[in-house]
Specification:
Helices cover 33% and strands 21% of the residues. It has 470 residues and is α/β, with parallel strands linked by helices. It is globular, with a radius of gyration of 22 Å. The protein starts with 9 loop residues before the first strand and ends in a 10-residue tail after the last helix. The chain binds flavin-adenine dinucleotide (FAD). Flavin-adenine dinucleotide binds at residues 18-24, 41-44, 49-51, 89-90, 120-125, 142, 145, 268, 271, 274, 310-312, 317-318, 321, 451. It comes from Nocardiopsis changdeensis.
């Protein structure tokens, strides 16, 4: 754990940045360099977030650093004077809708008041239930990627499935760890040439990266099935096999593979709970179905002192996260009278626009989650567990959704306890939203305090930790 983890109970700063991934690090660096007092809080033991995930010293010694540029960025952030609070989970917002409530690594209560709040909380992996998804040996691609990077071999024989460009590098990372990847199953048809894929020619570096993954998979004899999804994972005590079917024709079996590792995920969805608690207006993204904060191009939310950056603003990859973090910081500096270089802001805007072009291309090539997730949820067999924490089946959710008032997601949660367990709907949220009846009412899982499980002592202690005005 970092040395700089101990924090007094009430903290103030010019800017509080929540999340030390690429977006939060970039924002914090820019703000601190301009002379602002910046607090950077992250629940992980080390700063870096998902992309620059910093393994502990033993792992670094054993397998090396697969993204050393992340370590260099963290070092620059520290050198700029940012107060880094690792192991600090922001779990809520006080009644003033301004003071952040956090818990230290030891579970002590910490209040944070800042003139600006930058939410850089990243993304969740998008999971969709299927029969057998609760079996040991079934994991998300992000977890498989992280464990592989840390030298852990999660299985001997794997299938990687779901949708999105992330599946290919994950399959390659597994191969590097000596896992025999028998197949990649992609729900869409992104690798079949068509009018949309012509757009890829405008991004030669990305095309070359894709080609290198494809070549590695081909060398290892990995089949890439398109229009294919996981219908069922089989096994008694852990996953032993997987049945893959056509996405466009669920009755058609594509293959059944014996595996001891199944990695399934449908991309990423923004982690926007903190901005919602801070009162930021949100919209439903028509393409992804995700709840996203309403933002200016520089990440300013409807609450003027709150900015949302990186994947929390919409999944778009690490380079965009870095650029969004900087853009928000420059905007904050401009509004605080420390006018940053105009040319710099213009260059950043152009860079962001070019990155947005690639995000649009990706969205055009892979199936839109707003259609994919409900289609998968509709075909779920009744006894499939949707909420693994509270053991609620698809049939139970459907019955609650069909009852009076069932178009309301909170009513479905209340009637079934789905989404009310330890993970607070982080896993089953998209499926719950997709299974509801539609119609009036709240169609999204609400953001609720606490954002993470925390010791009761951290809440009780709050009464003794008065906030300070900023
Ligand atoms: C599991 C997973 C694995 C991924 N692996 C890759 C990969 O290998 N390659 C790739 O290109 N992309 C990967 N991504 C996508 C990745 O999120 C982005 O490319 C990039 O890391 C986004 O940067 P960010 O700063 O927006 O968010 P992140 O890097 O996700 O950083 C967000 C940080 O916020 C912290 N945080 C969130 N909520 C709180 C809270 N309430 N209190 C305190 N701290 C909080 C998190 O601990 C995290 O460190 C992965 C995503 C996930 C979810």
């Amino acid at each position: 754990m970092s040395a700089d983890t101990a924090a007094p109970a009430a903290l103030t700063a010019d800017a509080a940045v929540v999340g030390a991934g690429p977006a939060g690090l970039a924002a914090a660096l820019e703000l601190a360099r301009a002379g602002l007092d910046v607090l950077l809080l992250d629940e992980q033991a080390e700063p870096g977030g998902q992309y620059y995930r910093r393994p502990g010293p033993e792992v670094l010694d054993a397998v090396g650093d697969h993204r050393p540029e992340g370590g260099r960025l963290v070092a620059r952030v520290r050198a700029a004077g940012v107060r880094v609070l690792s192991g600090h989970t922001v779990w809520g917002v006080d009644d003033d809708r301004r003071t952040l409530l956090a818990a230290s690594p030891g579970g002590a209560a910490v209040r944070v008041r800042a003139r600006w709040v930058v939410a850089a909380t990243g993304a969740y992996e998008r999971s969709v239930p299927f029969p057998g998804w609760q079996l040991p040996g079934v994991v998300t691609p992000g977890l498989a990627q992280h464990m592989s990077a840390e030298g852990v071999r999660l299985g001997r024989r794997a299938v990687v499935a779901g949708s999105g460009p992330f599946l290919l590098p994950v399959a390659c990372a597994l191969l590097e760890r000596g896992v025999r990847v028998v197949a990649v199953a992609e729900a869409g048809r992104p690798y079949t040439p068509g009018p949309a894929s012509l757009g890829a020619l405008r991004f030669p570096a990305r095309l070359a990266e894709l080609a290198s993954y494809a070549a590695r998979l081909a060398r290892h004899g990995v089949r890439v099935h398109q229009d294919t999804v996981v219908a069922r994972a089989h096994g008694a005590d852990r996953v032993e096999a997987v049945t893959l079917t056509r996405f466009s024709d669920p009755e058609r079996v594509v293959a059944r593979h014996g595996v001891d590792l199944l990695c399934v995920g449908y991309g990423f969805r923004p982690q926007a709970d903190l901005p919602r608690l801070l009162g930021c207006a949100v919209d439903r993204d028509p393409a992804t179905g995700d709840t996203v904060p309403r933002l200016t191009p520089t990440g300013r939310s409807s609450v003027p002192h709150v900015y949302v950056v990186g994947e929390a603003a919409g999944a778009a990859g690490a380079p965009t996260a870095l650029a969004r973090g900087r853009a928000a910081a420059l905007d904050i500096l401009a509004s605080s009278g420390r006018a940053p270089d105009r040319g710099e802001r213009r260059r950043l805007a152009v860079h962001l626009a070019s990155l947005a072009g690639f995000t649009r291309l990706t969205a055009a090539l892979y199936p839109a989650p707003a259609e994919l997730v409900p289609a998968l949820a509709r075909r779920l067999p009744g006894p499939t567990l949707v909420c693994r924490c509270e053991c609620v089946t698809a049939d139970a959710v459907r019955a609650a959704a069909a009852a009076e008032g069932g178009s309301d997601v909170p009513a479905v949660k209340g009637g079934t306890r789905a989404g009310m367990g330890l993970c607070q709907a982080r896993e089953c949220g998209p499926a719950l939203e997709a299974l509801r009846a539609g119609g009036p009412g709240t169609g999204t899982v609400p953001a609720r305090v606490p954002l993470r499980p925390l010791p009761l002592a951290a809440v009780l202690e709050l009464a003794d930790t008065p906030g300070e005005d900023v």
